[in-house]
Amino acid sequence: MAKIEAGKMSLTISYLPIRQVLHEITGLTADTANQKKLNMCLDIADDLPPIEADSLKVKQILYNLLSNAVKFTPDEGQIGVKTRHTETEIEIIIWDTGIGIAAENMEKIFEGFFRIETPYSRLTEGTGLGLPIAKSLVKLHGGEFVIESEGVNKGTSVRITLPIKQKSVAKHNENQNSCS
Q1: Which part of the chain is the Histidine kinase domain (predicted)?
Q2: In angstroms, rounded to a whole number, what is the distance separating the alpha carbons of residues 103 and 114?
Q3: CB distance 131 to 68 below 8 Å
Q4: Considering Cα of 100, then 103, then 106, then 112, what sign does the dihedral take?
Q5: In this predicted structure, what is the pLDDT of residue 90?
Q6: Do the Cβ atoms of 134 and 61 come closer than 8 Å?
Q7: 17, 90 in Cβ contact below 8 A?
Q8: pLDDT at 175 (0 to 100)
Q9: How many whole angstroms separate alpha carbon 58 and alpha carbon 16?
Q10: Which of 3, 4, 112, 171 could be bridged to 136 by S-S, CB 3.0 to 4.6 A?
């Protein structure tokens, strides 16, 4: 978190088959979801294009968000992943029917080490860094991070958008001499 805040975090960009990554991350959380008898709804577009992104950081974002959905959804609830894309970006929505977030806590959840105090949250582990890190990593990729909840016990929806192609940071000198 300190590296991100100090502007010292860099991305290692590669082509990332995001559809495959989403199936991998949902597979990693499936056992815990099954133990809680959660219904996992996947609506991952078949034509989702690969993106230019930092593989490890995108996996961290998705794992944090999906594991939060599993963690904060009571037994027999629902969680889900939905995707869509345009020519320039992909959108991933991770949603749940869990404990939700009260309006007064919507901004606080992005403060490091903040955890909402509820009887349910005392049963779960965590540092309160998952959401702030995920949001910062999405922003570092040039994407958007939006979280919504209609309130306590009304579930949560996190929508992230990531560019399909990263903006080039290399500057080209148009006046370079060419050799013939």
Answers
A1: 1-166
A2: 15
A3: yes
A4: negative
A5: 98
A6: yes
A7: no
A8: 39
A9: 9
A10: 4
Residue 34 has a pLDDT of 97
Q: Is 135 left (phi over 0), alpha (psi -120 to 50) or beta?
A: alpha
DSSP assignment letter at 115: -
Question: Which residues, including other chains, have CB under 8 Å from residue 174's CB and lie 6 or more apart?
Answer: none
63 and 22 Cβ atoms separated by less than 8 Å: no
Cα(15)–Cα(112) distance, integer angstroms: 31
d(CA 86, CA 48) in angstroms, rounded, equals 9
* Segment 83-101, tens digit of pLDDT: 999 999 999 999 999 998 8
CB atoms within 10 A of CB 3: 10
Q: List the end-to-end C-alpha distance of the chain, in Å, as a whole number.
A: 49
Q: What's the residue count for the chain?
A: 180
Side chain identity, residue 136? S
Give the domain ranges of the chain: 2-163
Answer yes or no: pTM beyond 0.90. Answer: no
Alpha-carbon distance of 130 to 32, in angstroms, equals: 18
Q: What b-and-e string marks burial along 90-102, b requiring 16 or more CB atoms within 10 Å of the CB?
A: bbbbbbbbbbbbe
Q: State the pLDDT at residue 10.
A: 81
**Tokens, residue 96:** 């749940």
Pairing of strands 78-85, 39-43: parallel
Strands (E), the chain: 13-16, 39-43, 51-54, 78-85, 89-96, 144-148, 156-163
